[in-house]
Amino acid sequence: MAELAPAGPYPPGDYPVVIVGSGPGGLQTSYHLSRFGVEHALISSDDAPGGMFRRFPIFQRLITWTKLHAPVERGDPAYEWFDWNSLLGEEPDHRSVLPGLMDGTSYFPSRPEMEAGLRSFVDRAGIDCRYGCEWLSTRRDDQGFVLGTSDGEYRCRVVVFAVGMAEPWKPSIPGLDDVPHYVELKDAKHYADKTVFLIGKRNSGFELADGLLPWARQIVLASPRPARISVLARSTAAARARYLQPYEDHVLGGGNLVLDATIERVERNSDASTVHIRGTTRPGTMTIEADAVIAATGFSVPLGDLRDLGVVTFHQDRLPAQTPYWESASVPGIYFAGAITQGSIGMKKYGIPSNSAAVHGFRYNARLLARHIAEKHMGVSFPRPTLKPEQVVDHLLGKARRGPDLWNQRSYLAQVVEFSPDDGITDAGCVPLAHFVDVTGPDAVAITVETDADGDIHPALYLRRSGTVSEHLLGSDPLHNFESAAHRKAATALLTGLI
Fold this sequence. Notes:
Distance between the termini: 59 Å
Strand content: 25-35%
């Protein structure tokens, strides 16, 4: 089959690892596997890099920021804190690629700018991909997995699916089959002077409402659960504050409505629709007449035949269940990267989800995933710097104050220091917090950054002593200075007996 395949990089054959998908998750994973010396193939059905950013968001403006002018210089790793959209790079030329392509009119990049940033990263980093190679089937053999593709078969020990939340999804509601999905939105002018009923109050629902505000006569957003504004404003796993203008219009009585209601059915009339709803937070049934109904009900992962292979799903069959290291919970050797890693939900402290649905969260997951695959499956050893006892507290608090991975993945990723009678005190690097809490290991301390229920940001220490993990929340600081004398004193007291 390899002889018959079109020319290009990564022809069909045997590889230790195969990555499927050329969106930011696949590109970031491939980048780090290459730097860790792990041979792999990167394949994609698309004809160019970018994934969903080649098409979405529909209204062409991202909800994640990249600040052109920030308190630190571009290229400094700490700038990642302020640039949520560039991929991670080990070399200066590979870092902070996107800001140089933005026109400066907004610190939310446009979709074309984001797509151009990903193409530029690929060019600078020299990432090869076999484009136009569609993944069609999956089976197991004695050595691992066999992927059937439009170009031929790929055999591998480990496969990483970075195919995105890319499949339009609708719940089973009578009449919804005839309702257009978010991806089928017409030009905004089409909705001028019309009542538009949007089913859904998450990212895509608020995006459409925001984009249609200048045109629609009235917009109604409805879904069973209330929009938790206190959480939404602190998380990009849900609608960001810049999408909340439709909600503000609702609160101020501006004519738009945000309803907590179950959609029972949609009836299409000759030139309009009747939506039958049942209130959730406020009981009762009602009907709403709308000129247009749009299903802003989100996406699911295009899993192909992976369910037949035993991959277990959840969230209404939309996401694969995963371990803290983004491996299928039911089929070892199958991993996921990119937005799919939101399926590894982590601790979800105070009800706040991870940022794994967005680039500035899952890019760190991809780096850790690549390292995990290199260590666990390929036998690659990574050096662990040693620390003197007097360095431990400053090391941990410095990470909590300035570590972009801990800030961008709050309560999800943690910096770990281990204490061993044989190896001494070692920096074990960044790990998923859920992994640190769930597994046994040597005495250790992990530090993470947490946003509590009141919006205060704190460093939190997790201590593992004799196999038991305890949690200790340190104080907040209005200037986010977690290296104060008070923080040092508190952390030192907690580590008594270890340093």
